[in-house]
């Protein structure tokens, strides 16, 4: 028995973070991927919940043993997604969701070809522009860069299995939940979930 | 833009007919395939709704032009599924659902490789036996034959994309609806539905 791995990407302004948060609230069997980090825990953060907190040496050791799906250094701290943690979660039957960009998604697909790719789009380019323009307080070149980054991300939509167009949030959430439910129903997953029944049939 | 073709199979006793009827009530965009027949309409039946009613000569003409996906003669009347009718429905953007057995499903897959196969299973073999044994009024050899036919059908479950285990009817219906919703979200379908948005991205 093994869980599904979901890889969710979107340009900023598509509403990915909100959608994923709502999904996780309603589908407790889907676990958000928990990254490893070398930064110190903040008050209230718990090891293994927000992050796996590790020492710099330990993190460097993981890099040298090629244990990360992806890693990055941000403001002097390391962050990374462990291949083994994902494999273990899946082997235990948990679904895992990774919020990632198109480049990360390509890396994940190489290691986990069964990963289910979901791309979230805004309803239109005009609406995206409106969302990314914000309250008109940002400099034009900042807005330009934001839009260019969003368009660059969106050009990879064709690399994903499913596309959700986030016009109405509740509809987009129903779409995402349908993908999760449906992905558990394919022949291989069902056989894994119901071994006794399938053993009698095949 | 084109619709999805669903091919739904099950052994008797799995609850297929009930599930499909409930799906059609809740998803009006999914159309049940309408067969052609040479039998006379019964009171209340309407041409193009329950069946396409045609004369024997017209039906034989369709057979000779290889226009049927499958056809059969039952009690002196012909029944058949028209390839063209299905193609037309899909081209108009309608989803079409075919209730069919594993042999019919194989034929459909040859012509419509994009067809989405759904197989409905009972929760256990014991439960199926109980359902097929009925109220104990049938002869043992009749029950034996019924069970053998159900098992023969179920051995083909692996040829279908999705498997629904009909333990709780409302859950099984939610499964079927998730498959329908999810199948509309794949990249190709979404591009067909939102040509203006995708034209700007690709």
Automatic annotation (TrEMBL), chains A, B:
One of its GO terms (cellular component) is cytosol. GO terms for molecular function: ATP binding; GMP kinase activity. Pfam families: Guanylate_kin. It is an enzyme of class 2 (transferase). ATP binds at residues 10-17. It catalyses: GMP + ATP = GDP + ADP. Keywords: ATP-binding, Cytoplasm, Kinase, Nucleotide-binding, Transferase. Its EC number is 2.7.4.8. HAMAP family: Guanylate_kinase. Essential for recycling GMP and indirectly, cGMP. This is Guanylate kinase. The gene is gmk.
């Amino acid at each position: 028995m093994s869980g599904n791995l979901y890889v969710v990407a979107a340009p900023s302004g598509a509403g990915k973070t909100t959608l994923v948060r709502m999904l996780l609230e309603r589908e407790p069997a889907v676990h958000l991927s928990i990254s490893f980090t070398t930064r110190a825990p903040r008050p209230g953060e718990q090891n293994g919940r927000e992050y796996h907190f590790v020492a710099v040496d330990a993190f460097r050791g993981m890099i040298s043993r090629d244990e990360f799906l992806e890693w990055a250094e941000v403001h002097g701290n390391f962050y990374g997604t462990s291949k083994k943690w994902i494999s273990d979660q899946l082997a235990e039957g948990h679904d895992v969701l990774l919020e990632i960009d198109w480049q990360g998604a390509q890396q994940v697909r190489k290691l986990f070809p069964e990963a289910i790719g979901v791309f979230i789009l805004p309803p239109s380019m005009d609406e995206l522009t409106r969302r990314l323009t914000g309250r008109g307080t940002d400099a034009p070149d900042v807005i330009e860069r934001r839009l260019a980054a969003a368009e660059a991300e969106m050009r990879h939509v064709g690399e994903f299995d499913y596309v959700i167009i986030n016009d109405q949030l509740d509809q987009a959430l129903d779409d995402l939940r349908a993908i999760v439910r449906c992905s558990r129903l394919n022949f291989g997953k069902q056989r894994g979930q119901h071994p006794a029944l399938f053993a009698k049939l095949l």
